[in-house]
């Protein structure tokens, strides 16, 4: 098997049956798998998926405090902008285009750290990055960790059930994991430590970076707007942290064929370009599947790409040393040929 065939920990119900068809587990099977995978008393190697959801649990009280104590027009607006636009765009900038695809490079570690911590820390880089490489290699096929054809819950709980790295990688394969992660600046376990903890990231780094990040942002928000603003934005982070887990199900059309001629050109998968995720987070998902290593995914004039604007701004400031922009290739390979073919049909 290739590296990407076995780098992720397979679920107990498996990826595919004996005939190679996608296994679609029942909701009960998915939920049982979820609780088994976050059981740190059963196996300490479950610590990272547990930690990922523990942060969400810690954020949820802020959401209810916001609703019951601080709900007003201005806190609602602040929470909306922070969850929908700021955190959504940051996820695209950091986790998606930099950590996974290396679409641009920072001048130095300071700007990498600055960008990493632009928002409240929610998603562990490791869980996102390695599984996303598999997603692109196996989009909408068995083994895709968030295959929309297996249903909503299959995607929603994928960060626990399907995305963590395998716990029994040999040393050579673990080195390949390190190669995919080393540019992120996340502190890595040695192979011996990986055998103990079952993760790339060290628990000490994960916990320390989480506590420092949350402490900084709560204090900063408090200085800007008191407990009202701090609780509202931490509550907004909870809303985003839950909502982002629904994206790939929606971004791959709920497993259906909903691609539109002249809009969605990546036809080897079910990804679609959606107006709302595109405008608020730069997630023109079908464009991204065409050119995954591009720092820009909003190719057409109406396709607003806030993540690209941030990357371009940092480049002009000298903080980003280089980037890849495939807009020209998009028009040359896909959009212009489509328009020319359509024109010929209209003339005939």
Number of helices: 16
Overall geometry: globular
The beta-strand count equals 2
Contiguous runs where pLDDT drops below 50 for at least 5 residues: none
Overall number of structural domains: 1
Overall helicity: 55-70%
> For the residues shown, what is the average pLDDT?
96
Strand content: under 5%
Q: State the separation between the terminal residues, measured CA to CA.
A: 50 Å
Q: How do the SSEs run, as a string of H and E?
A: HHHHEHHHHHHHHHHHEH
Mind telling me the C-alpha Rg? 21 Å
Q: Looking across the biggest beta sheet, what order are the strands in?
A: 1-2
Defining key terms:
2% strand, 348 residues, mainly alpha, globular, two-stranded antiparallel ribbon
Q: Would you give an account of this structure?
A:
A two-stranded antiparallel sheet has the order 1-2. It starts with a helix and ends with a helix. It is built from 16 helices and two strands. The mean pLDDT is 96. It is mainly alpha-helical. The longest helix is centred in the middle third of the chain and has 41 residues, at 203-243.
Outline:
The chain is mainly α.
Give the SSE layout.
Blueprint: H1 3-6, H2 27-37, H3 47-69, H4 73-100, E1 104-106, H5 109-116, H6 125-137, H7 152-156, H8 158-161, H9 171-181, H10 191-197, H11 203-243, H12 247-251, H13 275-281, H14 285-290, H15 306-317, E2 320-323, H16 327-347
Antiparallel strand pairs: 1-2
Helix pairs in contact: 3-11, 4-6, 4-11, 4-15
């Amino acid at each position: 098997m290739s590296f990407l065939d076995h780098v992720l920990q397979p679920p107990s119900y498996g990826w595919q049956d004996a005939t190679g068809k996608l296994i679609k587990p029942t909701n009960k099977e998915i939920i049982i798998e979820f609780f088994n995978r976050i059981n740190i008393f059963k196996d300490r190697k479950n610590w990272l998926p547990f930690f990922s959801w523990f942060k969400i649990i810690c954020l949820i009280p802020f959401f209810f405090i916001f609703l019951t104590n601080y709900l007003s027009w201005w806190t609602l607006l602040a929470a909306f902008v922070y969850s929908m636009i700021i955190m959504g765009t940051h996820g695209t900038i950091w986790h998606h285009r930099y950590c996974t695809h290396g679409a641009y490079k920072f001048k130095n570690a300071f700007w990498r750290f600055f960008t990493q911590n632009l928002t409240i820390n929610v998603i562990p880089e490791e869980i996102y990055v390695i599984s996303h490489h598999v997603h692109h290699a196996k989009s909408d096929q068995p083994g895709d960790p968030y295959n929309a054809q297996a249903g909503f819950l299959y995607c929603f709980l994928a960060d626990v059930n399907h995305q963590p790295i395998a716990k029994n990688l040999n040393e050579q394969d673990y080195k390949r994991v390190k190669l995919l992660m080393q540019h992120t600046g996340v502190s890595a376990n040695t192979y011996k430590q990986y055998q103990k903890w079952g993760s790339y990231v060290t628990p000490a780094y994960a916990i320390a970076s989480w506590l420092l990040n949350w402490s900084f942002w709560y204090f900063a928000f408090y200085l800007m707007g008191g407990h009202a603003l701090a609780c509202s934005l931490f509550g907004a982070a909870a809303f985003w942290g839950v909502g982002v887990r629904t994206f790939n199900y929606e971004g791959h059309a709920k497993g259906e064929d909903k691609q539109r001629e002249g809009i969605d050109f990546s036809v080897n998968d079910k990804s679609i370009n959606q107006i709302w995720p595109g405008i608020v987070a730069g997630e023109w998902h079908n464009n991204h599947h065409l050119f995954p290593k591009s720092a820009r995914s909003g190719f057409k004039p109406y396709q607003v790409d806030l993540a690209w604007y941030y990357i371009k701004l940092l480049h002009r400031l000298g903080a980003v040393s280089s980037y890849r922009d495939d807009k020209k290739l998009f028009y040359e390979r896909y959009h212009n040929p489509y328009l020319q073919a359509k024109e010929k049909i209209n003339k005939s």
